[in-house]
Amino acid sequence: MNILHTVQEFYPSVGGMQEVARQLSVLLADRGNDVVVATGKDAKRDFEVYKGVRISDFQIKGNEVFGYKGSEAEVNRYISFVLNNEFDVVTNFAAQIWSTDLLLPHLQKIQGKKVLVPTGFSSLYSSKYRPYYKRLREYLRKYDLIIFHSKNYRDIEFARANGITNYIVIPNGASEEEFLNTFSLDYFDHIKSRKVVLTVGTHNGEKGHKESIEIFRKAKIKNTVLLIVGNRSKSQNGGLVLLKLVVKLLLFRKTHSPCYQLCLIKSFFYNFSIFRLFDGNKIDVLAGDRDNTIAAFQRADLFLFPSNIECSPLVLFECLASRTPFLSSDVGNAKEIAETAGSGIILPSHTAKNGYCYVDIRSSSGILKKLIDDDGLLLKMKDNGYNKWLEQFTWGKIAQKYESAYQNLLSIKE
Questions:
Q1: Is residue 21's pLDDT more than 60?
Q2: CB 23 within 8 A of CB 403
Q3: What's phi and psi for 180, nearest 5 deg?
Q4: Would you tell me which CATH number, out of the four given (3.40.50.2000, 3.30.420.40, 2.40.280.10, 3.55.40.10), belongs to the domain 2-173+394-411?
Q5: What is 46-73 written as a DSSP string?
Q6: For 111-127, how does the pLDDT look when each residue is reduced to its tens digit (9 = 90+)?
């Protein structure tokens, strides 16, 4: 098959959507398909082929609601590229991004079968997006197939409410290539036998870092580290980073990544608090290159994920693959993953009018304190999650499902 995947950012850019597109593109190419990715330009990308996947990039950003950043010529070049090449399947990853939004008015002109992977409709409840989603109802009918990651999240509920029937559900997964290998990190030599509570997520203010710190502090667990692993801001380098961050935060309040700065400052002050003196616990913040992140998953005793908004969080599948039980907010399809895998507990949560999810800090701290000391239950959850990952949630098995879905589309006569 000749397959085109469109996504606003692609490797070496990191993030959930980028990882889904990367894994599926590479694995489908490995299976003998001709795969092209159309994506945004990246200053760090100095290659046109990645593990058998050809990359065509465009100097475009933004979306329909807030406008596009890119010349008219570049926008037209992208649309022409999709319309004038003979792809068997064209898959748009995510809505609310330029690489999908620019194609919506042209769906009927696309030669191949058209597939949308919505990845959550994160702004569905935003008043600014109301006209967008009103138009999207009709656009969804023009796709040959829609692939949702969850049976019960807001994107699939929106489709059902609007009479959309051309969909299937395929979950996300975690990589065999990564998690069947063992990674090490020098950092762990310094914490020795302490237990590790891990959270992983970009410092964008929505991944629950603030809540993780509050939950961990209130739990007052002995001899334990809360480790926050996330992408570091480009401007945050050098030995005087902490001083620079404090000055920026307190005096100028204009920051590149406020979440990272707050996490770093809170961890700095917390490590000198009375709790460390009595209980020997601490908070650390590490930069999240991929090897370090996998090593952290493999070393962690428990994963804490009070995130505010998700669709189908990859980190929870990575918990299964790394034998790491998890505590999560009731965000995205976290409950579905926990129930299916038997490896997670959903924290008391409520969803605000804006669609964001928030955990109850006090109750969550009690649950964390109780679970981290229950070695028997942790071991059972580890085994449950790992076995379920091998059975259902490896990227190899997920890629096979996408390939079958594409082949089924091509077998349907017009």
A1: yes
A2: no
A3: -90, 0
A4: 3.40.50.2000
A5: --SEETTEEEEEES-EEETTTEEES-HH
A6: 999 999 999 999 999 99
C-alpha closest to that of 372 among 302, 305, 321 = 302
What is the DSSP secondary-structure string of 74-106? Answer: HHHHHHHHHHHS--SEEEEE-SSSHHHHTTGGG
Q: Which helix (H) or strand (E) holds 403?
A: helix 395-411
Distance of CA 388 to the CA centre of its chain: 20
> Which tens digit of pLDDT belongs to each residue from 222-243?
899 999 998 754 444 434 445 5
Please tell me the distance from the alpha carbon of residue 317 to that of residue 386, in angstroms, as a whole number: 9
Topology of the domain comprising 177-392: Rossmann fold (3.40.50)
**Which pTM value belongs to this model?**
0.89
For 131-174, how does the pLDDT look when each residue is reduced to its tens digit (9 = 90+)?
Answer: 999 999 999 999 999 999 999 999 999 999 999 999 999 999 99
Task: Spell out where 261-386 has E strands.
Answer: 282-287, 302-305, 326-328, 344-346, 349-351, 357-359
Burial 263-286 (b: 16+ CB within 10 A, else e): bbbbbeebeeeebeeeeebbbbbb
Nearest residue to 302 (alpha-carbon basis) of 350, 370, 250, 349 = 370
Paired residues of 224 in beta bridges: 195
Distance CA 331, CA 355 (A): 10
Given pLDDT bands bounded at 50, 70 and 90, which one contains residue 274?
Answer: low
